[in-house]
């Protein structure tokens, strides 16, 4: 394509317009099945060390098993991963790539993900947990399989909580209200060595975390960040009040520059996902407890769900082989390895019921409890806890904008104007893209 | 870069030889010698520039199968009027302007002071000069990473602990990069640190162009050191100073690496820049048309600065 | 406009130790007290100036908890090499890339940009300065106009144009070989060369190519050095373009990799500094050895203006 553009600008642009139009047609191109043998390329996100080790190990073992398929793995940094997928033309994508749950709609819209039917085995699809299947289905077709789901809540340092005389909830049903939570922060900060009480992983800003981790604040007020192709619902006094409340805790929050705020005992609470479990349990042992997030409004405490999933690109010439690798990734062995490495909730039924971390009475059962009562795409209410991030091709923009709101609000920005600005930018994206054909 | 002097005449060569043949050979050779450069510039400089103008009049989303859509001047209008975009864009222009207005005099002044101080026959100046120049060989990406720790928000941060020490604990830890009032200043200081050495070297070279006789004459006239500086050094450095400051102005408008690594334009757009916004529009938001429109505006600004520089240099030539 | 001064525009070589402060070349030096005060002040300033570099080097030899620990980071205690082995150990497979690979990428890209650029741009500069051909004026003018068009102004459309080449070496060097500024620097240098030798060669029947290769190139070493240093420094620190065009570790250059590395958990600052030291050490070494060329090269580009 590069050479054709040498002809000149006009020709180049025309060619580009043609290639773009040529692969259009609704966005459900199916990958070629191929021989089911040979080398396939795989892209995965480079995130937590535990996950990295797990995927490297999985690939190694898969290659050693001589199934006729060889995997060549590339890890791409989590912070720019979605940008990478967005800016890579469909024709240059690897056979298999990982994607974050909410970007599925956007990748399907760009005709980058192939439907999985006939490529992965029916058993694999049937064994996916209901929340994973829901996340990976868009407009009635399944485009991805998940190895893990995600859990979000707070970790507590039992020793510090007890020392400050703070009583804490252990189930989503009796979570703190924002005011209770604030009272706890005050008590904890008074006792803490650096007078901080909370870690919100500020060292990983900016990034998807700021969006995933704090969207539950919005949902807890009974509002959604987008509905009906508009962010009108976000720009709402109740949501703004909740976000202002959250931002007002900035003085209790440790910047966590060295990533040691919670494990080294500088703060008693860490608002973060399942992935910190291995690090934290190693540092705190039996003093590690899990707490639900506080509730900010009438819909009650809410949390996040959904995680990275695996799909096959529309440009793959070896869909069968790619499917074999996905079957392998979602096998009990790998799912268990991931869960152990990362503390993640398994995304397959068979492991979910047996995992020592997540079964009843397990240390992370709180996360499983939330995932068992998902809210789906409907308006969040007290009858459910886990809310998926919005499934829309606009998600990259939504996430970017919401991250800015959270980050700037914590830095002392004016919340109403931040929210208003974000809502306008999201609305603009819908307008400019003709509502993404929805 | 005083480029537009009348181009000197080509060498008249080969008088004793067949003129026509020599010329043909020369022209052929010239064609071959310039071909790669012309092709490269045409393909990778001129074409993208024209493409920028074309793109800026379209809505193009990288993450979309829809073909580019003609929108006329809407991207420009939106940058200047749409409430969702305009705030950030104006802020970017303002930040670039502030950065320029602060960095150019400060950095040039510092570089000039260093250059004058080091332009003496004092033992060890060569070593000192090396030290001041050293940051220049550090890629900005690395500089930003190191300074990220210097600006670390808590007491662990280098700058905070220095301030804590010298103020006897009176100055508490400041979140340099996280506070909208200090973030741009922090970026500015770091940029001056990295850039001053380069300017210093250029100014040193300029200083050595000044005819020593002028100093002799001045001191015979009884001029003190300050008067010598005012009346000999500064006028002698005029061109170099104009060059150095224009280059810095243009560099200031290209501000990107530090922002990308340290602040991503935040907090609250307090460090966003024109280039950063162009890249995020095109890259993060997938809105290539808007990125291209920003780029075109950026070019117009750079062009204006360059023309002003040319004008200043020409005036000086007329004065002489 | 002559360029012979490129060789020693700065008196790095001339300030021989113990040289007397003579009045001729520079402003007269102060009395010895003033001089001592001045030197002391300057030395302090220089130390403050290099403190971030010292901070980085020391930090690279300390465990993370001591690397990021306020002023005590400057105390040479708790020294260890663990950061280096730990950092290199994190690049242990093709999926994350190897440290050597990042080096290789930076090196290949810079060498091609510098090497290719020297050939392409000096030829063009020569043809513009010394050969007669139709269109010369127009090309010269275009080159001068293009100097003011910074890369930033075309990065976005170039990204759109070359996106199919992303994640290659080629996309990283291709746009930077032909360089208007370099052509212009060569052009002004060649304009300043005496013509006698070329005329002699011409009488001997040498054509433009032979004249260029055998006469001009050997005389133009200072110009080549200047352009080499300038393009190398730019290319070696190149960041914006790799941010847009590269996401594969196998073709990631060093500046991009350090920005990625510092954002990857576990955030180990000792290791990040170790990365920084290894990244900059060779260039710093080359700089210290060839300092005179660096300094004069950079200065020459400006004084030319």
How would you describe what is shown here?
The complex is a heterotrimer of chains A (438), B (320) and C (305). Chain A has 438 residues and is α/β, with parallel strands linked by helices. Chain A contains 19 helices and 15 strands. Chain A folds into 2 domains: 27-150 and 306-355, D-Maltodextrin-Binding Protein, domain 2, CATH 3.40.190.10; 152-304 and 374-437, D-Maltodextrin-Binding Protein, domain 2, CATH 3.40.190.10. Chain A has helices at 2-6, 9-22, 49-64, 78-87, 104-109, 122-127, 130-135, 158-163, 178-191, 208-212, 215-220, 237-247, 277-284, 319-329, 332-342, 349-352, 365-371, 395-410, 415-432; strands at 38-46, 69-77, 96-100, 113-114, 137-138, 141-142, 145-146, 152-157, 198-199, 253-254, 269-273, 288-291, 303-304, 308-313, 386-387. In chain A, strand 5 and strand 6 (141-142) form a beta hairpin. Mean pLDDT of chain A is 88; it is low at 1-26. Chain B is an all-alpha fold and 320 residues long. Chain B has a single domain (73-319), classed as MetI-like fold (Orthogonal Bundle). Chain B has 13 helices and 2 strands. Chain B has helices at residues 19-55, 74-81, 83-118, 125-133, 140-150, 158-166, 183-207, 212-220, 225-236, 238-253, 257-262, 274-283, 288-319; strands spanning 58-59, 69-70. The model of chain B is unreliable at 1-19 (pLDDT under 50). Chain C has 305 residues and is mainly alpha-helical. Chain C has 2 domains: 33-80, no CATH class; 99-303, MetI-like (MetI-like fold). Chain C starts with 31 loop residues before the first helix and ends with a helix. The chains are: A alpha/beta (438), B mainly alpha (320), C mainly alpha (305). At the B-C interface, helix 1, helix 3, helix 4, helix 5 and helix 6 of B face helix 1, helix 4, helix 5, helix 6 and helix 8 of C.
């Amino acid at each position: 394509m590069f050479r054709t553009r040498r002809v000149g600008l006009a020709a180049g642009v025309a060619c580009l317009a043609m290639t773009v139009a040529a692969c259009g047609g609704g966005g459900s191109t199916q990958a070629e099945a191929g021989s089911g043998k040979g080398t396939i390329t795989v892209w995965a996100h480079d995130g937590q060390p535990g996950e990295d080790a797990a995927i490297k190990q999985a690939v190694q073992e898969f290659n050693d098993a001589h199934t006729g398929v060889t995997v060549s793995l590339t890890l791409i940094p989590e912070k720019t991963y979605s940008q990478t997928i967005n800016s890579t033309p469909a024709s240059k994508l690897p056979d298999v790539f990982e994607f974050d749950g909410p970007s599925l709609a956007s990748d399907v819209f760009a005709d980058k993900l192939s439907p999985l039917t006939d490529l992965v085995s029916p058993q694999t699809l049937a064994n996916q947990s209901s929340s994973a299947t829901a996340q990976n289905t868009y407009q009635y077709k399944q485009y991805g399989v998940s190895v893990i789901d995600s859990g979000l809540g707070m970790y507590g340092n039992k020793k510090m909580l007890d020392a400050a005389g703070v009583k804490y909830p252990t189930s989503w049903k009796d979570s703190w209200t924002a005011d209770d939570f604030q009272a706890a922060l005050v008590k904890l900060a008074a006792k803490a060595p650096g007078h901080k009480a909370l870690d919100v992983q500020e060292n990983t800003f900016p990034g998807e975390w700021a969006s995933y981790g704090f969207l539950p604040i919005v949902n807890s007020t009974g509002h959604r960040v987008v509905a009906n192709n508009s962010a009108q619902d976000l720009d709402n006094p109740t949501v703004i009040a909740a976000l202002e409340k959250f931002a007002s805790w900035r003085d209790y929050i440790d910047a966590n520059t060295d990533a040691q705020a919670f494990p080294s005992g500088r703060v008693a609470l860490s608002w973060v996902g399942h992935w910190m479990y291995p690090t934290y349990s190693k540092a705190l042992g039996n003093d590690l407890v899990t707490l639900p997030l506080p509730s900010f409004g009438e819909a009650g405490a809410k949390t996040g769900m959904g995680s990275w999933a695996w799909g096959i690109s529309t440009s793959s010439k070896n869909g069968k082989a790619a499917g074999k690798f996905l079957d392998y990734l979602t096998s009990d062995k790998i799912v268990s390895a991931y869960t152990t490495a990362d503390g993640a909730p398994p995304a397959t039924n068979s492991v979910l019921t047996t995992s020592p971390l997540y079964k009843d009475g397990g240390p992370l059962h709180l996360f499983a409890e939330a995932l068992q009562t998902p809210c789906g795409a409907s308006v969040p209410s007290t009858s459910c806890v886990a809310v998926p991030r919005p499934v829309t091709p606009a998600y990259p923009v939504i996430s970017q904008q919401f991250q800015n709101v959270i980050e700037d609000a914590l830095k002392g920005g004016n919340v109403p104007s931040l929210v208003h600005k974000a809502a306008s930018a999201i609305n603009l994206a819908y307008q400019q893209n003709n509502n993404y054909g929805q | 870069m005083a480029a537009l002097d009348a181009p000197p005449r080509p060498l008249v060569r080969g008088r004793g030889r067949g003129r026509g043949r020599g010329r043909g050979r020369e022209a052929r050779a010239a064609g071959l010698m310039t071909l790669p450069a012309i092709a490269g510039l045409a393909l990778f400089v001129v074409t993208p520039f024209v493409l920028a103008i074309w793109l800026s009049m379209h809505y193009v989303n990288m993450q979309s199968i829809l073909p580019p859509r003609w929108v006329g001047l809407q991207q420009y209008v939106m940058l200047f009027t749409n409430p969702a975009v305009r705030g950030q864009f104006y802020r970017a222009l303002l930040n670039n302007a502030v950065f320029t207005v602060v960095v150019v005099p400060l950095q040039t002044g510092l570089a000039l002071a260093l250059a004058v101080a080091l332009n003496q026959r004092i033992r060890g100046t060569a070593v000192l000069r090396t030290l001041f120049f050293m940051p220049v060989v550090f890629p900005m990406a690395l500089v930003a990473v190191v300074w990220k720790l210097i600006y670390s928000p808590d007491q662990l941060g280098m700058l905070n602990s220095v301030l804590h020490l010298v103020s006897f604990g009176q100055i508490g830890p400041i979140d340099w990069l996280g506070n909208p009032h200090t973030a741009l200043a922090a970026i500015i200081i770091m940029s001056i640190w990295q850039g001053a050495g380069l300017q210093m070297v250029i100014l040193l070279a300029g200083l050595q162009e000044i005819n020593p006789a002028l100093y002799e004459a001045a001191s015979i006239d009884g001029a003190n050191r300050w008067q010598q500086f005012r009346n000999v050094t500064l006028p002698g450095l005029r061109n170099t100073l104009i060059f150095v400051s224009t280059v810095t102005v243009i560099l200031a408008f290209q501000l990107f690496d530090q922002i990308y690594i340290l602040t991503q334009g935040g907090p609250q757009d307090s460090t966003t820049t024109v280039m950063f916004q162009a890249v995020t529009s095109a890259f993060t938001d997938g809105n290539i048309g808007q990125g291209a429109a920003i780029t075109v505006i950026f070019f117009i600004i750079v062009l204006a600065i360059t023309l002003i520089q040319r004008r200043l240099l020409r005036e000086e030539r007329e004065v002489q | 406009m002559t360029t012979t001064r490129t060789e020693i525009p700065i008196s790095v070589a001339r300030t021989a130790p113990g040289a007397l402060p003579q009045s001729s070349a520079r402003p007269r030096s102060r009395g010895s007290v003033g001089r001592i005060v001045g030197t002391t002040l300057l030395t302090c300033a220089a130390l403050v100036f290099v403190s971030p570099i010292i901070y980085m080097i020391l930090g690279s030899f300390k465990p993370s908890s001591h690397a990021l620990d306020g002023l005590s980071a400057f105390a040479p205690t708790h020294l260890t090499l663990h950061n280096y082995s730990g950092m290199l150990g994190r690049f242990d497979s093709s999926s994350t890339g190897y440290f050597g690979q990042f080096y290789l990428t930076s090196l290949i890209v810079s060498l091609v940009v510098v090497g290719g650029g020297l050939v392409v741009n000096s030829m063009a500069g020569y043809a513009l300065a010394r050969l007669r051909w139709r269109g010369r004026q127009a090309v010269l003018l275009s080159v001068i106009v293009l100097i003011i068009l910074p890369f930033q102004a075309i990065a976005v459309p170039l990204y759109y144009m070359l996106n199919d080449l992303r994640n290659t070496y080629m996309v990283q060097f291709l746009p930077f070989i032909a360089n208007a500024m370099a052509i212009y620097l060569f052009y002004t240098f060649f304009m300043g060369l005496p013509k006698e030798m070329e005329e002699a060669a011409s009488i001997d029947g040498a054509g433009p190519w032979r004249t260029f290769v055998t006469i001009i190139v050997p005389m133009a070493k200072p110009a080549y050095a200047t352009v080499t240093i300038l393009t190398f420094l730019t290319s070696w620190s190149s960041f914006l373009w790799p941010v847009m065009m590269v996401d594969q570790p196998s073709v990631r250059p060093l500046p991009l990799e350090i920005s990625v590395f510092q954002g990857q958990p576990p955030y180990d600052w000792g290791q990040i500094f170790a990365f920084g030291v290894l990244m900059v050490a060779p260039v710093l070494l080359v700089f210290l050895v060839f300092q005179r060329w660096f300094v004069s090269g950079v200065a020459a580009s400006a004084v030319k203006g």
